[in-house]
Design goal:
- The complex is a heterotrimer of chains A (250), B (253) and C (266).
- Chain A is mostly helical.
- Chain A is built from ten helices and two strands; from the N terminus they run ββαααααααααα.
- In chain A, helix 6 runs antiparallel to helix 8 (159-196) and helix 9 packs antiparallel against helix 10.
- In chain A, a hairpin with a 2-residue loop joins strand 1 (2-3) and strand 2.
- Chain A has a two-stranded antiparallel sheet with strand order 1-2.
- With 253 residues, chain B is an all-alpha fold.
- In chain B, 81% of the residues lie in helices and 0% in strands.
- Chain B has helices at 4-25, 35-47, 50-82, 84-99, 106-113, 117-141, 145-153, 158-195, 200-210, 214-242.
- Chain B is globular.
- With 266 residues, chain C is of the alpha/beta class.
- Chain C has two domains: 2-89 and 167-264, P-loop containing nucleotide triphosphate hydrolases (Rossmann fold, 3-Layer(aba) Sandwich), CATH 3.40.50.300; 99-164.
- In chain C, helix 5 packs across helix 6 (149-162) and helix 8 crosses helix 10.
- The longest helix of chain C is centred in the last third of the chain and has 17 residues, at 179-195.
- Classes of the chains: A mainly alpha (250), B mainly alpha (253), C alpha/beta (266).
- Chains in contact: A-B, B-C.
- The interface between A and B is large, with 54 and 60 residues.
């Protein structure tokens, strides 16, 4: 949008919303919305505290383990499905089902089978993230230009070489896109897992603050979480843009 | 083989259900019933009507929430897509909402609105709306300019262009946004039942788990997933029927 | 306009009516001068080609005449009226067809009439006639993705014909189809020009195509865009479609044009 001929930067309306938050908070419209400044002060004060750091590390641990496993399982599976028709026809219906199914319903199963601990949370995270990574990796492989494959053959490339030097890079834009969406879903998975399974990490903090009506604390932690999720997603988008220059002309 | 794809789907279902059955017999865990046990529990639940009352409960916030999200979401999406001002003002909110784990807000909603229908509808809405809004807005913004220009050259008014060009062109992506929104809403509905108050299907799950009636628990979960899949497939068929020309590439391919 | 009137005076005498006239048209995109002070006349009932290498502004000029772009300076008159935007007197045929992918052929052809508020049964009747005229009989209920490129362009042509505009503007209409279809289209276009009393403005970068179909060729050169020459092939137009491509005047003109354009190809 332009004002007086100047193009306003993309997310700048958030500043406006922030101001609105401050005003609403100060007016005391509702107990649940303290002023933004208060929230930010609380944020600053709790960031170093041991409780916060513990929550952060527990959440981060589950998140990173979940994402790593999702990538390690998801990308190869997707690639294999893209290359092998039989495998694809057998697995694709399930991938699609689990992609759109309400995965929260599966969490009780995990709790029953794997207990109430970190293991279940990690598996929840994997369940949330892996399907889209599989699908996108598969799409990336399937759209590889036939000519690239034939070119590799004609120059006598070994399967390993062909994979590392050609197929991986040709499919990379889609794979990165899938990982980015998978990461966002993984964040949701981690939080849902913590809310349902066992109260650790940020889930614990949310329960604690909300049951003690410490609203500023609650919003502070929420902002941290949203901020982290957003930063990771933007970082991946940046990586995607770095490879985008060749995406259109493959 | 003409029926290859159907046969393969059946085969893959057989493999998965067969593995489930075997895993249950080993048993992988005391809490892991076999496929057949779970299916018979499902049949029992269906026959004595428990499933139906449960779904009536669960579907209430889901249907209301989805309806609100669809109408409000598509409306907002159109506004954002068509107006640079509203785009600047509202997009960042939805972008943040989409990448953030909104489930974290659930304890807050419980506090604010109690444990009744309102908070559950809220949960469904906050989970479903962002993707519907952003998909709609993106599709509207990315309408190929060639056909907009064509409509202008044949004297189309602004309203003509919005109704006859932009909305039909955007409809596949709007529908896909609706499907994603509905899945997210479903997650919200189940989540609110498992977390807020046990009612409906969530109650069956929690209750049967507490009395160690695992077949019933698995049966309930199976039914939820089945329902979600069937409903989304139905939605796709409806889209194909209503917008026959939507199964296509673009004419300039 | 000195060049055109000279050319016309030489071949047709001084009484040919001008349907479209552009005077001192300039158009800039940022720092790039797409058109600078360009003036050109288009005689009524004839086909004028705008021929030139990429970047010479021919599509820009066409869209300005159509009213889809507005010039930075200069004026356009169509049949005596100044152009301020799209109008019912001009119809456009697009290079990439610009069909509605979700609509059937008959709806696409009738679309121009639909936007003008013509009643459904009436506009479908008109559309049916033109669908037959362009040779797509039987495909009324097909969808664009079910048609070949050549068929899709016929739909675009039928759509432009059905609004019965006096001026038909065609933006490289045959460049997105295969060579054989293209040749057929060129032959069909010749008979179309003869049978309809419309004025055609035709943008192309194919020299053979321009010489084949045109009553008048305006050669545009880029940077700055200017009309370098106007050619009126006359001798072979009535010789029948099969003989034109071997006519010696045809071949001479093609060679002449290529010689002057060659140095502008990057």
């Amino acid at each position: 949008m332009k004002i007086f001929g100047y193009q306003l930067p993309g997310m700048s309306s958030l500043i406006l919303w922030g101001v609105l938050w401050e005003i609403v908070g100060r007016m005391g419209v509702t107990f649940f919305v303290p002023p933004l400044s208060e929230v930010l002060q609380t944020l600053y004060s709790i960031i170093g505290t041991p409780a916060f750091v513990k929550a952060l590390s527990e959440t981060a641990y589950a998140f990173f383990m979940g994402v790593t496993f999702s990538i390690v399982i998801g990308i190869p599976t997707g690639i294999l499905m893209g290359k092998n028709r039989l495998l694809d026809e057998l697995l694709l219906p399930w991938v699609n089902i689990f992609l759109s199914a309400p995965l929260t319903a599966l969490v009780p199963v995990l709790m029953v089978l794997f207990g109430f601990g970190m293991k279940s949370i990690i598996i929840t995270t994997i369940l949330f993230a892996v399907w889209i990574i599989i699908l996108n990796s598969r799409a990336g492989v399937m759209q590889i230009n036939r000519s690239l494959v034939e070119m590799a053959h004609s120059f006598g490339a070994s399967p390993m070489d062909a994979f590392i030097k050609i197929y991986f890079w040709a499919a990379l834009p889609e794979i990165l896109g899938g990982v980015r969406i998978g990461v966002i879903r993984a964040v949701k998975g981690v939080i849902i897992g913590q809310l349902l399974i066992s109260i650790v990490g940020f889930g614990a903090l949310f329960e604690l603050y909300s049951s003690n009506f410490l609203m500023s604390h609650f919003w502070a932690v929420l902002i941290v979480l949203f901020g982290l999720a957003f930063t990771i997603s933007e970082f991946l988008a940046y990586l995607e843009r770095r490879v985008a220059y060749y995406a259109a002309s493959r | 083989m003409r029926y290859r794809s159907v046969l393969l789907k059946l085969l893959s279902a057989l493999i998965v259900f067969g593995a489930w059955e075997i895993a249950g017999r080993i048993p992988v865990s005391y809490a892991f019933p076999t496929f057949l046990e779970s299916m018979s529990a499902l049949v029992t639940l269906t026959l004595d009507g428990t499933i139906f009352t449960a779904y009536a409960e669960t579907l209430k916030p889901l249907v209301v929430g989805i309806a609100i999200s669809a109408v409000l979401g598509i409306g907002l999406g159109l506004t954002i897509g068509l107006s640079a001002k509203f785009d600047w003002l509202l997009s960042p909110i939805f972008v943040v909402m989409q990448s953030a784990p909104l489930a974290a807000l659930i304890p807050l909603l419980i506090m604010a609105y109690g444990v009744g229908l309102t908070s559950k509808v809220f949960v469904v809405c906050i989970m479903a709306m962002p993707v519907i809004v952003l998909n709609t807005a993106g599709a509207v913004r990315n309408t190929p300019s060639a056909i907009k220009e064509m409509a202008r050259s044949f004297l189309g008014t602004r309203l003509d262009i919005i109704l006859k060009i932009i909305i039909p062109a955007a409809s596949p992506i709007i529908f896909s946004g609706l499907r994603l929104g509905i899945s997210a809403g479903f997650i919200g509905a189940i989540l609110s039942e498992l977390k807020i108050t046990p009612t409906g299907v969530g109650d069956i799950i929690t209750y049967s788990r507490s009395i160690a009636d695992y077949p019933s628990m698995y049966a309930a979960i199976f039914s939820i997933i089945l329902l979600a899949v069937l409903f989304l497939n139905l939605l796709e068929k409806v889209e194909h029927y209503l917008f026959k020309g939507n199964i296509r590439g673009y004419a300039s391919d | 306009m000195p060049q055109t009137s000279n050319a016309l005076a030489q071949h047709d005498g001084p009484n040919v009516e001008i349907s479209v006239s552009t005077r001192n048209v300039s158009k800039n995109y940022g720092n790039v001068e797409a058109l600078k002070d360009l003036s050109l006349d288009f005689p009524r009932g004839q086909l004028t080609s705008l021929l030139g290498p990429s970047g010479c502004g021919k599509t820009t000029l066409l869209k300005i005449i159509a009213g889809l772009l507005s010039p930075d300076s200069g004026e356009i008159e169509v049949n005596g009226k100044t152009v301020t935007g799209p109008g019912p007197d001009r119809a456009f045929v697009f290079q990439d067809f610009a069909l509605l992918p979700w609509a059937s052929v008959i709806r696409n052809v009738a679309f121009g009439l639909e936007l003008r508020g013509v009643a459904k049964s009436e506009r479908e009747d008109i559309a049916r006639k033109y669908i037959l005229d362009v040779g797509l009989g039987g495909f009324e209920n097909s969808y664009p993705h079910e048609l070949s490129g050549g068929m899709r362009q016929r739909v675009g042509l039928a759509r432009a014909l059905s609004v019965d505009a006096q001026v038909l503007l065609m933006d490289e209409p045959f460049s997105a189809v295969d060579e054989q279809t293209r040749r057929k289209f060129q032959e069909d276009l010749l008979s179309l020009v003869q049978n309809e009393s419309k004025t055609f403005v035709f943008v192309t970068h194919s020299i053979e195509e321009a010489v084949y179909v045109s009553d008048q060729i305006a050669i545009l050169l880029p940077r700055p865009s200017r009309v370098s020459e106007i050619i009126r092939p006359s001798g072979f137009r009535h010789k029948g479609i099969d003989n034109i491509r071997r006519d010696s005047e045809y071949l001479d003109i093609v060679d002449r044009i290529w010689a002057s354009l060659r140095s502008y190809v990057e």
